[in-house]
């Protein structure tokens, strides 16, 4: 009897749990067909953000285990943080206000000098529930005219779990005293399927940044280093794209046209470089972006250097960035104004006298599909116009200086110098040689005293 009772109870138990299971299954199916996988979009979001926060937590745990200081550079999370004063970072309205961005990834950075290669990392990451993918690329710091080989270095690390990726970008210190990160190129199609690489904030292009000041902060209950001035970092991010000089082509160029190593040429390059450095510091201090233009741009593009027989340094500036303080600021650094042509509304051009070498600022005007800068012949009052296709600006390095160039450099150079820009031309007339020069009338004589000033 007792035995029978036990059997009956067991059977009953099995039956009831099967019924429960069946019920669960039915309930679940019913829900899926009616509401999608998750009961409601609110809860759906909750689950996703929980996963995002969890993966970030696991990643930060792993990094602290290896003593690797990482900092947050995720543009959406920093965007969230920039909306509130730092004392409110800790306590958002939800338990994950700032780090949960509803994106499939969260981005952090590390300075290369703190990144130690440790063979145990992939295994320990896996123990933390994170799958690790390392993306390597050429080390641009070793590549130059005298050495094209380079070696590969780690550029990006991708830690993934639960459909979420933590993207760790390695920032390298480069000789122009700036930070550089490489492009992210996934080799295998499997990786490309796993990683939402086209959506990632960093890696579509290489980028250049100033070293940010960091702040240790409690964000959504986690201790996280963040750029102290989040909006400054985000502004920098929006124009951080970096292009490398074309060393391989430059070397081919020098095989055809060996570099002039005479004392005069070397002297010019040294002086022009220091003038460029002073101009760059002064304009950056004024908050005025500039780019290498005309012959200086051609020198960078064609030969990764300054053209020794050009007589000056040429820089481009958007007219909307013009500030009258420029003149005073340059005079203060010991570079007097040599001439001023045109006016702010039309064809402005400034020239400052350096040590033997002068620096010319060409102001660019935007007009529909094109941009142009003007030229003025002092003795005749004739005006000229140089027309270029529109372009955006990229960082690059020239003689260990971080400077900008038009990203679409080939179009810019071709507009200015024609298809044969790769052949040196030593006798150059600014009024007739450029491919894109147009005559543009003349200044009325009554305006000469304003628009033609030679000092
Ligand atoms: C944070 O960013 C995400 C995505 O940009 C947004 O959906 C969310 O509302 C933001 N949170 C706060 C607190 O601003
Ligand atoms: C060129 O680069 C390779 C790889 O980094 C390095 O081993 C070699 O020493 C370099 N050669 C010169 C001449 O700098
Ligand atoms: C942050 O940087 C911007 C420049 O991008 C500056 O205008 C602002 O004053 C800075 N904010 C603080 C709090 O320093």
UniProtKB/TrEMBL annotation:
Keywords attached to this entry: Membrane, Transmembrane, Transmembrane helix
GO-annotated biological processes: glycoprotein metabolic process
Location within or outside the cell: Membrane
Ribitol-5-phosphate transferase FKTN N-terminal domain sequence ranges: 1-273
Entry's transmembrane regions: 7-28
Signal sequence segment: none
GO CC annotations, alphabetized: Golgi membrane
Membrane topology according to the record: Single-pass membrane protein
Domain (LicD/FKTN/FKRP nucleotidyltransferase) ranges: 287-323
InterPro entries reported for this sequence: FKTN/MNN4/W02B3.4-1 (IPR009644), FKTN_N (IPR045587), LicD/FKTN/FKRP_NTP_transf (IPR007074)
PANTHER family named in the record: FUKUTIN-RELATED, RIBITOL-5-PHOSPHATE TRANSFERASE FKTN
Protein family membership: Belongs to the LicD transferase family.
Record's protein name: Ribitol-5-phosphate transferase
Source organism of the structure: Scleropages formosus (Asian bonytongue)
Lineage: Eukaryota, Metazoa, Chordata, Craniata, Vertebrata
Name of the encoding gene: FKTN
């Amino acid at each position: 009897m007792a035995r029978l009772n036990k059997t009956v109870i067991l059977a009953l138990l099995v039956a009831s749990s099967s019924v429960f299971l069946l019920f669960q299954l039915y309930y679940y199916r019913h829900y899926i067909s009616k509401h999608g996988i998750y009961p409601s979009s609110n809860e759906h979001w909750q689950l996703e953000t929980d996963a995002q926060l969890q993966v970030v937590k696991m990643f930060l745990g792993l990094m602290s285990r290896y003593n690797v200081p990482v900092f947050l550079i995720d543009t959406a999370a920093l965007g969230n943080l920039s909306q509130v004063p730092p004392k409110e970072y800790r306590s958002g309205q939800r338990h994950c206000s700032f780090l949960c961005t509803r994106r499939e990834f969260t981005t952090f950075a590390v300075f290369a000098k703190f990144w130690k290669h440790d063979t145990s990392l992939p295994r320990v990451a896996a123990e933390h529930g994170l799958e690790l993918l390392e993306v390597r690329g050429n080390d641009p710091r070793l590549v130059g005219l005298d050495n094209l080989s380079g070696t590969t270095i780690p550029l990006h690390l991708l830690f993934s779990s639960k459909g979420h990726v933590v993207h760790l970008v390695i920032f390298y210190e480069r000789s122009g005293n700036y930070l550089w990160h490489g492009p992210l190129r996934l080799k295998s199609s499997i990786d490309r399927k796993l990683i939402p690489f086209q959506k990632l904030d960093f890696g579509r292009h290489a980028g250049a940044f100033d070293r940010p000041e960091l702040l240790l902060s409690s964000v959504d209950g986690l201790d996280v280093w963040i750029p102290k001035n989040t909006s400054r970092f985000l502004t920098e991010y929006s124009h951080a794209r970096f292009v490398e000089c074309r060393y391989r082509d430059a070397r081919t160029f020098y095989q055809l046209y060996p570099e002039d190593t005479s004392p005069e040429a070397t002297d010019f390059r040294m002086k022009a470089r220091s003038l460029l450095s002073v101009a760059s510091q002064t304009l950056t201090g004024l908050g005025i972006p500039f780019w290498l233009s005309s012959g200086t741009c051609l020198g960078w593009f064609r030969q990764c250097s300054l053209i020794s027989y050009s007589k000056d340094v040429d820089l481009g500036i958007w007219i909307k960035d013009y500030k009258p303080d420029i003149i005073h600021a340059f005079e203060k650094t010991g570079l007097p104004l040599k001439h001023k042509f045109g006016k702010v509304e039309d064809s402005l051009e400034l020239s400052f006298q350096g040590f033997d070498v002068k620096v010319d600022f060409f102001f660019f005007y935007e007009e529909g599909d094109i941009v142009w800068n003007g030229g003025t012949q002092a003795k005749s009052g004739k005006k000229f116009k140089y027309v270029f296709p529109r372009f955006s600006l990229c960082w690059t390095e020239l003689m260990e200086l971080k400077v900008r160039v038009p990203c679409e450099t080939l179009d810019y150079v071709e507009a200015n110098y024609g298809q044969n820009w790769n052949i040196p031309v030593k006798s150059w007339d600014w009024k007739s040689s450029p491919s894109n020069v147009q005559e543009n009338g003349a200044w009325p004589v009554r305006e000469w005293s304003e628009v033609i000033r030679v000092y």
